[in-house]
Design brief:
Distance between the termini of chain A: 59 Å
Number of strands of chain B: 23
Strand content of chain A: under 5%
Radius of gyration of chain A: 23 Å
Shape of chain B: globular
Oligomer: heterodimer
Number of helices of chain B: 9
Largest sheet of chain B: 8 strands, antiparallel
Order of helices and strands of chain A: HHHHHHHHHHHHHHHHHHHHHHHH
Largest sheet of chain A: none
Number of strands of chain A: 0
């Protein structure tokens, strides 16, 4: 029965999240603070399924051709086994459970709500409900989602990941899938088919993307400070109501997974920066690598994270470089099998259009098509429609980017004022660079908006350079420009919080005087 | 402080609306893709939801005829639905095994390459893709030499190929017009745009369309021949002007240069009718000269003529995006299909069947063929104030049928009406020589049907029935065909409403499935159109329209007909 398999899949995701919590708790290294423990517990909701996908990919690559039951059992056994091994090395058995309870309290406690957060919560529940509804009842229609599902169908039917990607075809083959992403999303879909027992019905695989959308929303709620904060729920609302994010989630795209891991990695950078243990370095690398495991563009996120690590970690230049590089190396190692296989299949680790022979035929003139059909042919197009897409295309991006611009302005003004105050208080005039350093190395619970802002600015610097160099790699697809959307939302909400708090407190203070 | 409170609530309200709005909108939009706004459809299994889809590419996969036919292989320009939803064998246009096809030096070799891969059908979406417009695929899929049948599913077209191409007598030697006689081009500029530059005059042929932002570009046209585009070109004194005979297949060859999205059309002028456009080719050009070649059939006729003269034509090149367009030599040649005295006969023979959803039947000239009973649904999209009409099914007159019997349920007032085919593209909707209907992409959701109603003077027999029943009721209508003048009639197109709102699993509904049939002046076709007409004032939503269904349509034979006893449609 289909419903049973859906619950089974969600159940395995929860189980995987619990295992991920155990494993990452261990990776979180010695003596994490309470805030860090909560953070890891929240993020493990999204890490879990990808861990599952990784084990499944490994299983289907190493032991192809088995039965579905064996596959399910082996993967779950491997997952629970790893968690058990790690668990046994924890100092206290009760720690993980305590973490989960703390995280739940932090996220979901709705006592002491005020009108703003209540409305936010109501809107959030509506948005999540509508999203879930649309996912459950409407079959897949989007090209990418259907192609990934087609791949997963073939992987499921052959019970083997060895032929993935489906590029070298025999006469009996139909489907041609010339993309070089690792198997993250496809493996999750295959997992769904395994639990369902067939690949005929698409219902079960439509739960994957919303899971990650909700995980990203929860990560945002956590970053803002939990549901008890006035704007906690509104952060998640802003993310889900941005049209691009909304309809790509409804269409079961792959980007939600990639974006989740970018947020997760950014949120873990302060954990690393506070005490750069080798375990934490590896952990952050694995997080960044999971983004690549979903979609090759995760390599970009990996670079952004490494740059952020470089900025945040204290120490000598060489130490910082070493740590940042190790993060990237670990990330790439995680997907090394896929990269090596890609070289064998395509001739290069990441294959884009060059991998498709038909695109290279000069008589077909694909160049003209790609240039003209995307609407980014002129100079003005590339900058207004391409680089500034978030501002110029409200139908796709809503008002989120405009809010970001406003909050950026407010933020800068606030920083300059507080800098001036700091200078006045300390009596000395620290340089801006030293102040920056001081601000960056503060711990996880504060200044998260600095980190989010830095990543967003880094991303846009990258896009800027690429457009100046005449490349349209980033601006050709609105989903690429959407990469830093969750971080943007965090920044907007954190910057806006002081306004709301002061407004509400002003109201409360005078509330009793009004009639 | 009260002001602050009010302000806060206003901002809160706005924030709530602006976030729940998009969520609600996209949820409903997604549900509408599969007609799921009707609650009972929500619980259907996925296979049945797919059958309710409004998307042409999904509808196409619902055909019974796909099931279990291993000899079928579809060349598709969009493999997504094939990959997941269907068991039909397919090959995608960017598959490396297609490279020999694209490298083929001529169209026959290219077709052989397709057949070598076992391809029996081609599925084409609406958007122009280089593998279509820069290869021989555009010629193959538009020519009766290679394509046995064409069906439209929304914006997706499905072509069934012949196993072997039809023989060609003298391939394309006969040239209908000498391109170099065309010295007059007029640029047709969209009014009000300052940033469109064009050089007009007798020998110029370049237009520019370069707004700062691509999205702001409007369309620009170049048309051959003198005078404005709405009027037939005055070709006095021009040798071998474009005169195209009805039913013949032609090849358009044009050299275009520039950048942007270009569409080449043949505008056909007959009598004093407004021109009808036959789209021939659409694609992106860039930089170097593109020698485009594509095939089309002149299927525009006028009912006023008993022996239809050739139509005059213009070639129109439209620049649909920003860019520039320079038109060079253009030629139209006869496509040279082999056949008897009239190439039209061959053209007729190629386009034989038409399908109404799961029903198939054959044009009467080649005998009866039993289809299998299916169901037709009539439903209209959109909210219309007063009345709508749509032909339910059509029957060739030469069937000699004396009566038609069918079962129907639903509600509304409907009548059967016998009408003569008047022109190649009209439905049986209006008896007008001027009725035109663009038959290529048919969705009744869009308003691509052009109606110009004029008095016809052709007698019409009507039987009006007021009808409201939830159960199936059997009806029988005697046929007394009116005295239709001996017209040359053209393609027969049946059109059905696109939506189906309810039904048990297994019922097939769907987008209009239409096929072009070529007929010619060798026989007259009269269509029996059973039409429904709702006469009440309806202002509700699309999903609430009353619905009428027909099934088990049987034609009773008339005298002197050498076919089996009756034909089920």
């Amino acid at each position: 029965m289909i419903t049973v398999s859906v619950f089974a899949m969600l159940g395995t995701f929860v189980l995987a999240s619990a295992c991920a919590c155990v494993i990452f708790r261990f990776v979180g290294g010695p003596l994490p603070t309470q805030g860090e423990r909560i953070r890891l517990a929240v993020l493990s909701l999204g890490i879990g399924p990808v861990l599952l996908a990784y084990f499944l990919t490994a299983y289907l690559t190493l032991f192809p051709g088995g039965s579905a039951g064996t596959a399910i059992f082996s993967v779950l056994a491997a997952l629970v086994g790893t968690a058990a091994v790690v668990y046994s090395r924890q100092r206290s058995a009760a720690l993980v459970w305590a973490d989960i309870r703390l995280a739940a309290a932090h996220l979901l406690s709705v006592r002491r709500l005020n009108p703003v957060s209540m409305v936010g919560l109501a809107v959030l529940l509506f948005a999540v409900g509508a999203l879930a509804f649309a996912m459950i009842v409407v079959p897949l229609t989007d090209n990418d989602a259907l192609e990934y599902a087609g791949s997963a169908k073939l992987v499921f039917e052959e019970m083997s990941a060895r032929r993935y990607p489906f590029v070298h075809l025999t006469n009996a083959d139909d489907y041609y899938g010339p993309w070089s992403h690792p198997m993250g999303y496809v493996a999750l879909q295959t997992w769904g088919f395994l639990l369902q027992g067939n690949a005929e019905d698409g219902l079960i695989i439509r739960f994957i993307t919303p899971w990650f959308a909700v995980c990203t929303a929860l990560a945002i709620v956590h970053a803002i400070g939990g549901m008890r904060r006035t704007l906690g729920a509104w952060g998640a609302v802003l993310l889900l109501a941005t049209p691009a994010y909304l309809f790509t989630t409804m269409q079961s795209h792959i980007d939600q997974i990639r974006m989740f891991f970018l947020v997760a990695a950014v949120l873990c950078v302060p954990i690393l920066a506070r005490a750069p243990d080798w375990r934490r370095v590896v952990g952050l690398g694995l997080l960044a690598g999971s983004g690549i495991f979903a979609h090759s563009l995760g390599i970009l996120s990996c670079l952004l994270i490494s740059a952020l690590v470089f900025l945040c970690v204290r120490g000598t230049f060489w130490r910082k470089t070493l740590i940042a590089t190790t993060v990237s190396v670990v990330a790439v190692l995680l997907v090394s099998y896929r990269l090596i296989d890609n070289v064998l299949v395509f001739g290069s680790p990441i294959a884009d259009f060059g991998a498709v022979p038909v695109y290279a035929l000069p008589q077909l003139d694909w160049e003209a098509y790609f240039r003209e059909a995307r609407g980014i042919a002129t100079f003005a197009d590339q900058w207004l429609v391409g680089f500034l897409a978030g501002l110029s295309q409200p139908k796709i991006y809503g008002i989120t980017y405009w809010l970001f611009l406003c909050m950026l302005f407010v933020f800068v003004r606030r920083q300059r004022r507080s800098n001036a105050m700091l200078i006045a208080m300390s009596g000395s005039s620290e340089s801006n660079g030293q102040l920056l350093k001081k601000l960056l190395t503060l711990t996880s619970s504060t200044r998260i908006e600095w980190l989010a802002l830095l990543v967003v600015l880094q991303f846009y610097a990258m896009v800027f350079v690429s457009v100046v160099l005449g490349m349209d790699a980033f601006i050709k697809n609105y989903r690429y420009m959407m990469t830093t959307l969750p971080l943007l939302v965090i920044f907007v909400m954190k910057s806006f919080s002081p306004f709301v708090e002061s407004w509400l407190s002003a109201l409360n203070a005078t509330g009793r005087e009004d009639s | 402080m009260k002001l602050k409170k009010v302000l806060l609530w206003m901002v809160l309200f706005l924030a709530a609306i602006s976030t729940t709005g998009p969520v609600a909108y996209y949820t409903v939009a997604r549900m509408n893709l599969f007609n799921l706004t009707k609650l009972q459809n929500l619980l259907l299994p996925e296979r049945n939801k797919l059958q309710l889809s409004r998307l042409g590419q999904v509808q196409m996969l619902n055909l019974d005829r796909w099931e279990n036919r291993r000899e079928i292989r579809v060349l598709t320009l969009r493999q997504a639905e094939f990959a997941f939803y269907s068991r039909v064998r397919f090959i995608t246009h960017i598959d490396p095994r297609m490279v020999p096809f694209y490298l083929a030096p001529d169209v026959d070799t290219a077709f052989r390459e397709l057949r070598r891969l076992g391809i029996t059908h081609v599925s084409i979406p609406e958007e122009p893709l280089p593998t279509l417009y820069n290869s021989f695929l555009v010629e193959i899929t538009n020519s009766g030499r290679f394509v046995r049948r064409r069906d439209h599913f929304g914006a997706t077209t499905l072509c069934e190929l012949y196993a072997e191409p039809t023989a060609v007598s003298t391939p394309g030697d006969e040239q209908v017009s000498a391109g170099h006689d065309w010295t007059l081009w007029t640029a047709d500029k969209e009014y009000g745009r300052k940033d469109v530059a064009f050089t007009a005059g007798p020998t110029s042929s370049t237009v520019l369309n370069e707004p700062a932002i691509s999205a702001a570009a409007k369309e620009v046209r170049l048309s051959s021949g003198p005078g404005p585009i709405d009027v037939a070109p005055d070709l006095a004194g021009i040798q071998d002007a474009f005169r195209l005979a009805v039913g013949k297949e032609y090849r358009l060859e044009a050299d275009v240069k520039g950048e942007g999205l270009v569409q080449a059309e043949a505008h056909i002028y007959i009598d004093d009718s407004p021109p009808q456009a036959i789209p021939v080719w659409q694609g992106y050009i860039s930089g170097r000269t593109k020698s485009l070649q594509a095939t089309f059939t002149q299927d525009v006729i006028s009912p006023k003529c008993t022996d239809c003269p050739s139509a005059t034509a213009r070639i129109v090149l439209r620049l649909l995006s920003r860019g520039r367009l320079e038109a060079g030599e253009t030629r139209i040649r006869e496509s040279g299909l082999a056949g008897s005295s009239s190439s039209m006969e061959v053209v007729q023979a190629r386009w034989r069947g038409w399908s109404l959803q799961a029903i198939e039947t054959t044009a009467i000239k080649w005998g009866w063929r039993n289809g299998h009973p299916g169901r037709l649904f009539l439903k209209h999209a959109g909210a219309y104030p007063v009345e709508m009409e749509s032909a339910a099914f059509t029957v060739p007159r030469d069937a000699g049928a004396s009566a038609v019997e069918f079962e129907v349920r639903g509600e509304g007032r409907f009548f059967t009406e016998l009408r003569c085919a008047t022109d190649s593209r009209s439905s049986a909707q209006e008896l007008s020589p001027d009725t035109t209907w663009l038959g290529r992409v048919l969705t009744t959701d869009s308003n691509e049907v052009q109606h110009q109603v004029a008095a016809s003077g052709i007698p019409v027999q009507r039987t009006v029935l007021a009808f409201a029943s939830r159960e199936w009721r059997k009806m029988s209508v005697r046929l007394q065909p009116p005295d239709c003048p001996p017209l040359a009639s053209g393609a027969l197109i049946s059109r059905m409403a696109p939506q189906r709102e309810s039904g048990a699993p297994g019922d097939f509904s769907g987008k209009p499935t239409t096929t072009l049939i070529r007929t010619g002046d060798h026989f007259r076709v009269m269509r029996l159109a059973v039409m429904t007409r709702w006469e009440r004032d309806f202002r509700g939503k699309a999903g609430e329209m009353p619905e009428v269904e027909f099934r088990n349509i049987i034609l009773e034979p008339g005298g002197g007909q050498s076919g089996p006893d009756s034909v089920r449609l």
